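Sat 14:20. Reprocessing the chain from the morning session after the first attempt stalled halfway. Input below, unchanged.
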Amino acid sequence: MGRSIILLRGINLGPTNRIAMPALREALEGQDYENVATYVQSGNIVLDSAAAPDALAEQVRELIAERFDLEIPVVARTRDELARVVQSNPFEDLATDPKRYQVTFLSGDLSDAVTEKLNQLAAEPERVAIIGREVYAWHPNGVARSKLWNNLASRTGLGSGVIGTSRNWTTVNTLLAMANGD
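Finished this time. Tokens:
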């Protein structure tokens, strides 16, 4: 078994899609996942699983649908994959505020057309870099008026069949620390 990171999209952001983290931990432990831990209320889970990330994401999505009657998109990464995300940081010298630096974790690869669109939407001084199944986005002026952010956050902005969920740099590093047992 290895450490895995589960990222839920769009939960506990308002009155809909509410899941209490203690209830979610209990549901996951009831399915024989081990060492289940959550971080904040926005759907960040670290646990032990033998399943590959895509299979694990589907298992968790089905469990949430069955147990909580919610259709929540789920993305998963192994501890090693998350470590590579942190090590690959393309804006290490530029992104000085971790709350304005986002990583969008994708369920699949982006098409060339979507990649081109994201690059065009990054308005100065924003920056975007796509590395594998992650989109790194630096929003030094915040996300409120960012067309890039609006596209990354929308359910359809990443193209057909690709799910994305974003976390700020602080959360990314915290999840890696949790996966490392720190």
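The radius of gyration is 16 Å.
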